[in-house]
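Entry for the shared binder. Reason: the reviewer on the internal report wants the predicted structure included alongside the sequence.
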Amino acid sequence: MSQRLRIFLFIIINSIFYTVQGQVTFIIESLPSTTLEEDSIFICGSFNNWNTHDEKYLLHPQLNGNYSITLPADTGTIQFKFLRNGNWMKVETSERNENLPNRVFTYGNGKTVYVKILNWQDLGGVKHFNYLILFLFAAAFYGLTLLFLVYRIQKCNRSKFITFLISNIILLITLLGSVMYNITNLIWQSHIAMLGYVLFFTWGPTLFIYINTLRLHKPPKKIFIHYIPVLFIVLFVVLRYINFKPLMFLSKEINLHLTLGSTIVMLLGIGVNIYYHACAVKYLQLNQQTNEDKTPKEVQLINIIFLTSIIALLFLCINILRLTTGLSLGIQIKFEIVLIILSFIIFVEFFYYWKFPEILRDKVVQHPINDASNLITQLTELMKTSKPFKNPELNIAELSDLLNTKPHILSKMINEHYNKNFRDFINEYRVKEFIAMSISEEYKNYTFLALAYEVGFNSKSTFNLVFKKNTGLSPRNYMKQKFNIIKDK
């Protein structure tokens, strides 16, 4: 290699090394909570003659949401300040909104400087409170109460409880995340937004699994397959948070509110959620065809949860369309409205699980009665010979013990064969026995009330009501008309 070429390469390499070494990158890691999303952050100083609106010194957001700018190589010492929207009235101030001395930096080796901006002169730390956030916080607290309520429900179906727990924890994190987003600064808002991307991708799959579990009493097979998109978005968020350089092009601003990366993520998230809502529609249609094993309240709860989610997704799609296209669409929808709609699910669940806890319990399997005719014969024979109905305290458990069967089996058999409940079945035998005893010579000196006690009634009023229900007449009128028997009451 010739002497001249060596000198030339040395000069080039040295120049590149000097340029890189002489550069300085300023990264803003904290902004006042009063900073608006649409605000532009500038740096100005002695290096640009304190030009407050020099586009070359506009800070740009990194993938992780931090604002940064790299100043070209130089020597000596510079003074500088940060301000918003190129306006001196919006310059940075102290935490107590007092003027700050100029920031100072001395060039040397290549360096990254992290900056915290405490306040802005025009805002003074004052931020208008969003009262929608108060509602979201209250809804999150209500949701926490719901978790304790469901935890105390005894004999919960394990699959139902777990899917309920996962879906509601995700909803609670979303609500609390929205609260934090609205009370923190712009830098932290970008970090919370990345968590929001992950929660957004879990919405559809979790809703689908939750509804499917309520419907079938068990979750769908291969449940983790449904969360594959979530794993990809988690990987994307991690790479974005560490400012993975090959993805830096995604930080390109599409408009005032969106970057290329956030636009792609939101559109993909909408696609995933629409797909899983469509799958839920399919299962709900199947549920309508085979809902004979469902209680009306269970069906109502499933339908309300799904309808609420559909409405929230529709509002979200409108808002994203408005942001990505810049169209007003004649409507302004805040993201908080979408969360308020979703929080309605918490209130609905609280009502249904508090009033109808059996929705979350294991399904009671009704076993067919084996040899029902034999049980009917035994029951009929028992009622004729032993007359257990004469016991005023007789209940279904005692009668089933006499027949050596289970109470629920005996109750089901009475309902299906006699079309009566247990109490009406027993009282019918008591009325028949009362009539038989009234016309018997053995009991001719008994009053009607004495006979009523004899056959198992424990009060006069109950006897009169039951007798009239079975015969259409009072005991006195019935015995007079049918048998010409007149007795004192």
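Summary line for the report: The domain at 372-483 is CATH 1.10.10.60 (Arc Repressor Mutant, subunit A).
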